[in-house]
Amino acid sequence: MPALAPRQGVAVTLPGAADFTAWRQAARGLVAADIRPEQAEWVVAGELPGLLAEAPAPPPSGAPFSVPRAFLDQAEIAIRHSDPERFALLYGLLWRLVHGERHLMQAATDPAVIRLGALAKAVRRDAHKMHAFVRFREVQAEDGPRHIAWFEPDHHIEEAEADFFLRRFAALRWSIVTPRRSVSWDGTALSFGPGGRRADVPPDGAPGDRYEPLWRAYYASIFNPARLKPGAMRAEMPRKYWRNLPEAAEIPRLMAEAPRRVAEMMERAAAAPNPRPQLARYLAPGQLSAPPHVVRDMPTPIDPPPDSTLALAALREELLSRPDLPDFAARATQPVFGEGPVGARLMFVGEQPGDEEDIAGRPFVGPAGRLLDRALAQAGVDRREAYLTNAVKHFKYTPTGKRRIHQSPDAGDITYYRPFLAREVAAVAPRLVVSLGASALTALTGKKLPVLKTRGQVVTALGGQPVFATIHPSYLLRLPDQQAQVDGFAAFVADLRAASEQA
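-> structure tokens emitted (503 positions)
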């Protein structure tokens, strides 16, 4: 390990601003050499004149040590932050973990732990913005069309997020240019280069950009004038990104028209709810079932939208307009779609929405969902970073007085919704799908596999995605005694932790 600043004790030159592997190797060497945090100085190669880019030396021999997975997971994200003190913060936490504070990560009020969480949260938010606000523009090159985008991240996320765009746009040749780095995919290999300028990317409305009208039309169609909150909108979509977004050109007009459109909505009398809203636009007056010629399937569109967010929106619209839904769907309050970020590392698939989910319109908010939240937290998985959905999208139940008794979906129900689920999985493109229970496992794989025997194994979905099998959290609610529930919950947490580690 090169000593570059005797005034501070030991200085370590890292080859990259977000190179977690290099930091981890160097930190292990410092701990083994008994270098205290205040004695170490961290430098990124090229950021200070006169320092050479040298990889840290291998750690000297010494007693091996380990740290909690929660620290490593947070540190790997937080190191991408632009805070120059991040390396020192991480090493200070590592030193404390190794020297007697084994449970430090559970100390929610510790300033260093709070700071680590804040750095990781900021990086995740920056990554989310990159996923949401990168817009490729098509340009014609001598060897065919290419797609170029400009983005200005706040932190060092370019290399970490490249895989997201590779999975989203593997069929295209694309480049993302940022002030620090450029990321390119030529259809065969991913490469990284120096940063660029906004002028390197075609401006809005450039000739040949066939996606801009699509984005503008889509944004205008989903804009709800009655829910216009300019402050919240600017917080979620800061103005710094507007120049990258073709749909941003529609915002001034839509905001100006909002008061008039809301007034028109208020003037129209509210209509009584249709008892079978899913069929309303297709059935003749008095008709109670779908026409006999309607085929009960959900085919994959020949030309799906080019963007995953658009694909999910189109999928929702299709389900809302299906005239041939199963009979029980007409009794449900509403379909319950999945929620979570596109490109989530983990995607959880359950059986079907329950009573509370049917009312709220969100997956996993009932008793089983609250149990899942507890298990995810203990497994170190942030629900906000996962995508949660169900194999069947409507609540199937038997009405009994004022109660609605859950009915398990049968093979026909699972088969009907399977194409929708397959397209949803393809659009989200997670690294790993976690099936919760037998119905989800059957829907994903097309096979009736025994959950308890398959539990903890990775099998293959019909679409080729890896599927980690485990139980549904509602299974734990039905266990006969308290000790069985405690043991079952611990095993479920272990399953979720194992899935997270494999994703």
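Residues 127 and 157 are 7 Å apart (CA to CA).
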